[in-house]
Specification:
Helix 4 packs parallel to helix 5. The protein starts with a strand and ends with a strand. A seven-stranded mixed beta sheet has the order 10-9-8-11-12-14-13, with helices on both faces. It is about 35% helix and about 30% strand. With about 300 residues, it is of the alpha/beta class. It folds into two domains: about 70 residues, Alpha-Beta Plaits, CATH 3.30.70; about 210 residues, Rossmann fold, CATH 3.40.50. The chain is globular and about 60 Å long.
């Protein structure tokens, strides 16, 4: 695998970040030092020609980028395994999210539950603030819906990644838990994680996108950990897929985008004749928006 690396000056970071966030799938990863404002752009490609072509295309839009980035060969196996160095067990309430390779050594306290994950190349270890915000919303939903039988509740995970949210919903008692993702690799990884947790016959993962997946389904709890522009683009279908008295949780939203996203959804809900109560939650530079339906 070919790695392309280039340092990014602070005055270019925001514009470049906004551009990359508009891509549904991107070979580029922008890491920003929030103290200095400087960034580092990394891209991963199958061959040198592909890497050079991608860099040339990016430079057409951003002439400030270096003409010649650092290009290096990285071992494909090492790249695929590198995520394990950053995935550590963590806990939210009585739920423990544990790397699959630590299943035998990690002690789960009595009365607690564990979810064993190997995210592979899919998003969703629970380490990211957006995933934790969604998990918090999931747990809070169950705690506030104590008058309902959890086995009668449904949870739908939009952009399921590793399957962490779908599997957590089922582990915590939801009767129905489903997820979908546009990336077929993510769906495969989610299915493997379902097998590892003995849930392969109790959850469903499919390859689909927001434009079609929600047209014929609805849920009591709808979790969408997707970037803000995609959420706003599909706000009508997200709101109409919510069951009466259900909750829609949107994450993948930067804190400074949260108010605009909230207003976009409120206006759309009014247009659709849906009454919702919004709530904002923050974790670092990320936000989650909860919309509770009252009918």
């Amino acid at each position: 695998m070919i790695q392309v690396t280039c340092g990014i000056e602070p005055d270019l970071v925001d514009e470049l970040e906004e551009h990359l966030c508009s891509w549904e799938i991107s070979p580029w990863a922008l890491v920003v030092n929030r103290l200095t404002g400087e960034g580092s752009l990394d891209g991963y490609f199958t061959c040198v020609d592909e890497a050079k072509a991608a860099w040339a295309a990016l430079r057409e839009l951003f002439l400030e980028l270096a003409e010649e980035p650092t290009v290096s060969l990285v071992d494909d196996k090492d790249w695929k395994e590198a995520y394990k160095e950053h995935f550590r067990p963590w806990q939210k309430g009585s739920l423990h999210v544990v790397p699959a390779w630590e299943k035998e050594s990690y002690p789960v306290p009595a009365g607690h539950r564990a979810l064993y994950l190997d995210p592979g190349m899919a998003f969703g270890t629970g380490n990211h603030e957006t995933t934790r915000l969604c998990l918090g919303a999931l747990i809070d939903f169950l705690e506030t819906e104590t008058h309902k039988d959890p086995t009668r509740l449904s949870c739908l995970d939009v952009g399921c990644g590793s399957g962490i949210l779908t599997l957590a919903a089922k582990t915590l008692g939801f009767g129905e838990a489903r997820g979908f993702d546009i990336d077929p690799s993510a769906v495969c990884i989610a299915e493997e994680n379902a097998v590892a947790n003995g849930l392969s016959n109790e959850v469903e993962f499919i390859r689909d996108d927001l434009a079609t997946a929600l047209q014929t389904t609805c849920a009591d709890l709808l979790l969408a950990n997707v970037q803000a522009d995609v959420l706003c683009q599909h706000r009508a279908v997200l709101l109409t897929a919510l069951r009466p008295l259900g909750t829609l949780c949107l994450s993948g939203v930067l804190s400074d985008e949260a108010e605009k996203v909230k207003q976009d959804f409120i206006v759309e809900a009014e247009r659709l004749g849906i009454s919702v109560f919004p709530e904002l939650r923050f974790a670092g530079e990320w936000a989650a928006l909860l919309f509770r339906s009252d009918c």
